[in-house]
Fold these 2 entries.
Entry 1:
Amino acid sequence: MPELPEVETIRRQLAPRLTGALLVDGWAFASGKFTPALDAVGARVDGVRRRGKYLLIDLDRDGNAEELIVHLGMTGRLSITERWIPTSAAAPTPADRSSWARSTDATDRPGPHLRARWTLDDGRALLFDDVRRFGRIAVVPAGSHDALPTLAALGPEPFDDAFSPEHLRTQVNRSERAVKTQLLSQRIVAGVGNIYADEALWRAGVHPGSRRITRAAAQRLRDAVRDVLAEGIDHGGTTLRNYRDAEGGEGTNQRYLDCYGRAGEPCSRCATILRRSVIDARATAHCPRCQRRGG
DNA sequence: CGATTTCCCTGGCCGC
DNA sequence: TGCGGCCAGGGAAATC
């Protein structure tokens, strides 16, 4: 479940290794969510950026600026092989797998859920693996995000000045939706998913189901969102089940979670048992003592 | 047009 | 051991 800290970790790993590379070949799993990967072939990588949970790979195609956009969904992973052993020009075949299995370098062996591959001009390859196929790939003219409505309507980056307490308060209060739902909507602030939403609300002492927040609560919540995301980045992301960084490594932020996934356990601040609920079809944990409505 | 609901996906885990 | 049921859940399409 890559959220902003996980995507940012991957971005930092990919940027130096990908920038300047020419995408000379591609392969994609036969699904409209992944076949756009082929549209990137023939372009050169100018840089790797991030917006919210979206990875934006800047491309240059004969002077025209394009973007290769990758959303990792729930289980998406990106990695770079040190070398690619093409035994087939198209889909990975059993012969390919056999070849990878003989390799002594684990990075040369994609998993069984490869969804896209870009071969680089120096023989390496960028691989996109996604067990559950919630991920998505698109190639568009630079800045043209009409085909990705959530990206097109994305709120400010959490560390941008535009993500102010007043912005958060007025946006939350103009809707009747629960504050947690709105944090997850990507429209008020970009990049927050279920893990960091629960963590931020717990830290700020805001009930996840609140429909209205005060100025004081908005100030605390704005700061908490920034803090939990910054700490998540510092810890290389949260690995609970599937998340791995671009080098196959696990993050360590799961060691520092106070709220997410801890329903039934005592609150680390007041020892009250954290409560489980479902908000907008998302599993939610909160402390009934620290997080009061209207807080 | 904004809000709400449905659908997409598979692996791990649990109980019988 | 085998298997049905359930859970994880972000984003886009469909529907209200």
Entry 2:
Amino acid sequence: MSAPSFRPLYDQIKILITQSLIAGEWRPGEAIPSEMELASHFGVSQGTVRKAVDELAGENILVRKQGKGTFVATHDEEHTQLRFLRIHADSGEKEYPRSEVVDCRRDKVAPELARALELRPGAPVYVVKRRLIFSGKPLVFDEIVLSAPLFKGLSAPRLNEFKGSFYSFFEIHYGLRMIRAEERLTAVAAAEEAAQHLDVPLGTPLLCVDRIAFTYGDKPVEWRRGLCHTAGHSYYNELA
Amino acid sequence: MSAPSFRPLYDQIKILITQSLIAGEWRPGEAIPSEMELASHFGVSQGTVRKAVDELAGENILVRKQGKGTFVATHDEEHTQLRFLRIHADSGEKEYPRSEVVDCRRDKVAPELARALELRPGAPVYVVKRRLIFSGKPLVFDEIVLSAPLFKGLSAPRLNEFKGSFYSFFEIHYGLRMIRAEERLTAVAAAEEAAQHLDVPLGTPLLCVDRIAFTYGDKPVEWRRGLCHTAGHSYYNELA
DNA sequence: GAGTGGTCTAGACCACCCC
DNA sequence: GGGTGGTCTAGACCACTCT
């Protein structure tokens, strides 16, 4: 048996709330009903709803604000907008890099990515290439792969016009909320394309960050490979 | 004012439990008193103790085991012993690398590390160099710096004799529990020493992982730099 | 069966936000 | 003042472990 024989009530409530989020019942940034309302709606005590919401808040899916309410998390807020960007200056200063899309075209998904993105082989995708510019210096060259049907009408100008992060763009224009991601890091030597865009000699050691990002229900939506010239910068991580 | 005007009871309980841990009242792996005992000892309800213990368990400082009790977390257990090792094979297979200490000597702390380790300039330290060998291949070359007074009598043979991770060794022989760490990753070209120990050509791109590890009360205890040849392996990270 | 942590409830009161 | 989330309590019952 893989299914647990016992399912706590708060766990079921968690699932029901998640389903409402998937269904788009409440949009990113909006408030969800109060704990008392949810409790009476689901026919449980406030404490049980609390535990469910606590866990969803711990997963950065909801955000609690004392005295105001509980809100659907978004990538559009000040302190969370660069949640997934781990590249920081050694000085510790906060930086808001500028994104510069250099290419955006339709293609067929590469075989090795089809599985990761749960697409059928040869499915249509958008491939976006962009640079991230930190204080005038191009430090990251990203290649991003997105399922074409999910991102109809994507284009370089639309991405470049947008003020905000890619994930904020995905939320606003496609209703897709990225809630978690898995990354795998390696060190590689700069090949021609990356060397050009990052303005470094061929063979320069680069941090290679492969990411798969997921939306509600652990559905993979984005694959990306970031090549990072770690000059005065590093990838920061906390282990607990 | 930086101190919060309001301190929840469970937060105070958390601090009291942490102080008992610092004082060595319960040793790693041992059970702490039951929730009911703690509750009556502190004069609060079981629910309040629960919340305190929940948070400490969330920080991997305590481990709850239903029906048995609550235990002081340790690096010596099966599933947690490689908690801080993020290098994994691309295949996803679990590997237990072999550690091979190649050098261990006393030295004075480097100026740039003194601050990070909260030592006075020139304080005595041990500098340990070791390789991690994955399925016969040396993939990581570590340089580890530890305050000498804290680690009296450290030596290469003692480290090599020990069956288990470094952090498990620290717990058992020095009573120091590593509870969290900060890492900064960059990509570098292999210099001579690393190239030799990792058996790669000079200039091979390597993942450079700088770590500071902390014990109870956020006290820094260890600095280390790991140079990793990411051949068939990568540094895995989850973003949430 | 006795002891542990895990769930759930109902109700009181506090801190914060906004009208 | 009325709404929200945040804390704390007391007590009931469930699930798990060991003896």
